[in-house]
Design goal:
The structure is a single chain. By secondary structure, the protein is α+β, with helices and mostly antiparallel strands. Helices cover 36% and strands 32% of the residues. The protein contains two helices and four strands, in the order H-E-E-E-E-H. The longest helix is centred in the last third of the chain and has 18 residues. It is globular, with a radius of gyration of 13 Å. The N and C termini lie far apart (32 Å).
């Protein structure tokens, strides 16, 4: 899905924070409870909320798995399941 310039700029801004700040505020990066090392990068533009599920590889590399526009309070279980599957495939491929 193509995003507006404003959304792309905000995503880039949040990526720069994740890349450069040692202690990232939960407003931008939050661990997904009940998962094995999955996090969500949080991007808000006006009333639109976007999430990008990711994990860390060796503490430094952020591996992005899937992104979606959030429409409810909870992160959809199917998005978490997809990210878990992609994470498993990523680390299996690295072996």
């Amino acid at each position: 899905m193509t995003q507006s310039e404003k959304v792309r700029e905000k995503i880039g801004y949040v990526f720069r924070i994740v890349k450069t700040v040692d202690k990232i505020p939960k407003k931008f990066l939050k661990h997904l409870e009940g998962t094995d090392g999955l996090y969500e990068i949080r991007v808000e533009v006006g009333s639109n909320i976007f999430r990008i599920i990711c994990c860390f590889d060796k503490g430094n590399i952020v591996v992005l798995f899937n992104a979606f526009q959030k429409k409810s309070q909870k992160t959809p279980k199917q998005e978490i399941a997809l990210a878990g599957k992609l994470k498993k495939e990523y680390f299996n491929f690295k072996k």
